[in-house]
Amino acid sequence: MINEQHFESQALMFDALASVCQESLQDALKTKNQASFVVSGGRTPIALFERMVEANLPWEKIALALVDERWVPGTHERSNALLVQNHLLNTLESRGMPTPQFTGLYHPTETAAESVAVCEAQYQEIARPFDITLLGMGPDGHTASLFPHANGLEHALNTRDTIASIVAQSSEVTGEEIERMTLTRHGILNSKKVVLVVTGKDKLAVLKTALKGDDIAEMPVRAILNQNQLSIEVYWAP
């Protein structure tokens, strides 16, 4: 189930997305002590964080976590944790504002698989369902780190665990970091609201292709789009 919203520009889309995130987190805090906010890597959180740091949010009451992570230390230039640090946490700290409780997905073990249990335990400490989860989508039809025909994909799609490790097939999309930690299908759908952010005409074409087919191994984003458990909000802008 999907609900598509198209915007005239990315600026308008990110304005709307920031408002939705703020409202979701504030609404959650009306009934509980902590709200949960789960974000992907890439450009989406940068544009979003630039807007959200201007909001009067009680960040100390928000649990911030990653949808997925390359199996690299938090100092690596392609680390999603570093992106969060640079574009949200550092900004909040520089303004003397409280910061969210941040949970990453990298631990210094030789392989991602060796840290699945630790990551699972840490994510179990975050109140679920997650209040809002943000996803992106690659040109190959992956979302989170659920890559086409990846080693571990079937498990990640079918387990009731929240976290899984993946070894993707090397491609231009994956880059050198083919070993990943990711939310599972169950983990993603265990959310009150899921927003899939898509930009550009090429990605829109990928989305349309995904919606027309049913081969999940070929385009794993179908596992999120083609289900009846939760309505997925799709935000698109050119």
Structural commentary:
The chain has a single domain, classed as Rossmann fold (3-Layer(aba) Sandwich). The relative contact order is 0.18. Helices cover 33% and strands 20% of the residues. It contains 8 helices and 10 strands.
What would a concise description of this structure say?
By secondary structure, the chain is α/β, with parallel strands linked by helices.
CATH C-level class is Alpha Beta
Instruction: Report low-confidence residues grouped into runs of 5 or more.
Output: none
Q: What is the rounded distance between the termini?
A: 23 Å
Look up the CATH topology: Rossmann fold
Main beta sheet strand tally, sense and closure: 7 strands, parallel
Sheet with the most strands: spatial strand order: 1-10-9-6-2-3-5
What structural class results from the helix and strand content? alpha/beta
Helix and strand sequence: EHEHEEHEHEHEEHEHHE
What global shape is seen?
globular
Radius of gyration using CA atoms only: 17 Å
| Helix proportion range | 25-40%
Q: Give me the number of helical elements.
A: 8
- Report the sheet-strand fraction: 15-25%
> Into how many domains do the coordinates divide?
1
